[in-house]
Amino acid sequence: MAHPTPLHPRQTRRPAAHAGASAMARVLPVSRPGRCAAAAGTGVFDQVDETDPLLSIDIFRRHGACIPPHPHAGCVVATYLFPDTETSLRCRHAHGGDDTLRPGDMLWLEANCGTVHEELPGDTRAAVRGVRMIVNRAGRHAQGAPAQSVVRREAMPHWREGDVELTLVCGQWGEHSVARAEGERTTLLQFDWRADALRTLEIPCDGRRWVALIVQGDAALAGHALRAEGAGAQAMRLPPGAWQLAGRGGARLVLVGGEPLDEPVVYRGNFAARDESDLVELTRRYQQGAMGVLAPLAETLA
Where, by residue number, does Fe cation bind (predicted)? Predict the structure, then answer.
């Protein structure tokens, strides 16, 4: 390009319109936690004050690895496969859920009172890449049965704004929405740059809390350079306002938003609980087999 898009655009914003909201975008620490290490990639963990209702958001990449049976309770496990991932992912849980995600699909697992689930790639020689979000439901569905649903790629709104392609994976963004009641207040929006481009990102003042993560390539947001190197990621917390967003061709960024619960939560061992006693009860139920058992698959995976 004769005049490439600058990756340090001038910062512009509108002040947050609700009392007490921070008007400054800020970089969030990212890490690779020990919890469920086989499944977790690089992302934002254990920062609920910043990401409520999201307990974690991570960009994962696995090559040939199955995630063996493990429990979840008091939360939603939302798994999105990037459209250019190399294979499918079969997701089962102990209460009858059995769905296969194709590239570009999303799984929404309401763990509710607790279940055991596993993930198996369709081809163990291929890589699986995507986004995983853990959404807080502590104390809200204690008696509900686990359930999972799938949003197929073809059901997601896709549109283009100049040289940037956008995909609404779940939730609502402007006039676009994904018709599924379970995740209507949790939004995942994907940006893909086909060429260097600069645009304004309008963060709505509707009570949702927003976090952006760079997935691949180079971008700049609110005056901060973002780069995804190797399997790493960088993240930012965005308050309402108008923010300058620039990206190089081939870059990918995801924007995640959710409505805060503003409630105490303890999240350990894949269990989201209201307090320590609730966590002890969930652990006891799992140890006693009340969250079910997954029977081994009869067939051998490739």
Answer: 70, 72, 117, 119
100 in helix, strand or coil?
A: strand
* pTM given for the model: 0.89
Mean pLDDT for the chain?
86
224 among the known binding-site residues?
no
Domain extent for 168: 28-288
| CATH label of the domain that carries residue 267 | 2.60.120.10
Lowest-confidence segment of 30-39, 58-67, 227-236 by average pLDDT: 30-39
Tens digit of pLDDT for each residue in 127-176?
A: 899 999 999 999 776 678 999 999 999 999 999 999 999 999 999 999 99
Three-state DSSP state, 287: helix
Tokens 């969030």 -> residue = 28
Asked if residue 263 belongs to a known ligand binding site, the reply is no
Is 154 among the annotated ligand-binding positions? no
72 known ligand binder: yes
294 residue type, one letter: L
| 10 within a domain of the structure (yes/no) | no
| Domain-embedded: residue 2 | no
Domain count, the chain: 1
